[in-house]
Amino acid sequence: MGVEYRFNMANPKLESVTRPSQNSNVIAPRKPAAAVKTAYSPAEREEIFRRFSVQRPEPRGELEHTNPFTLVVAVALSAQATDVGVNKATRALFKVADTPEKMLDLGEERLRDYIRTIGLYRNKAKNVIALSQMLVDEFGGQVPETRDELVKLPGVGRKTANVVLSMAFGQATMAVDTHIFRIANRIRLAPGKTPDEVETRLMKVIPEHYLYHAHHWLILHGRYTCKARRPECERCVIADLCKSPEKSWDVPAPLVELPPQVIGEAVD
Prior knowledge:
two-stranded antiparallel sheet, 2 strands
């Protein structure tokens, strides 16, 4: 620290003013890291996902697929469409085109005939052919196993990439669809204004040992219990823990394992 002398005209005397020297190492105090927004304590979060794990020990996605390529195609086709509707269209499609090479041989026009019942089918057909071409040209016909590479594929965004990384390659990801976005905000588990914001917060608040299955637990909970129009709180296993302002029931449903999922016949 150095001392500087100043002359005060109003009061004619020298005043000393202490100021940092040029060589002094002044460290500004850091602001504490902002806590992740959630309405639940760590113990409550642990209990929420413990109950989900009892209810559905091995949850699965409900899009039918046979390999990573057909999964990429199915998820890309599911944008603004139901899993049930996509499954109906892809059952016949994947029998004739379950690799990028076969999809290219099929061609865009014939592909459109298979997926005509799916919304935005023309644009989706164009993307499927384009992503098939990229897989052949740049990845040797194999679906890449990193998010950065997956999102380069036409029609594949972050959500689709996260689904593929989870379901095809066993990585713990959080694919924020409409169900997860709704639940994270409705029950105040990880509120956010955008899917990316919700994804980041969920990855921080979900107990690590439950993270791999959490994406499917939340989707299925939103699809069959915490529904968009009216949450069926009386059927909810976390009704007593839930902090949603919309909650209409405080008694949790019996915590029992549900029957095995029947993929392809679920009602969306």
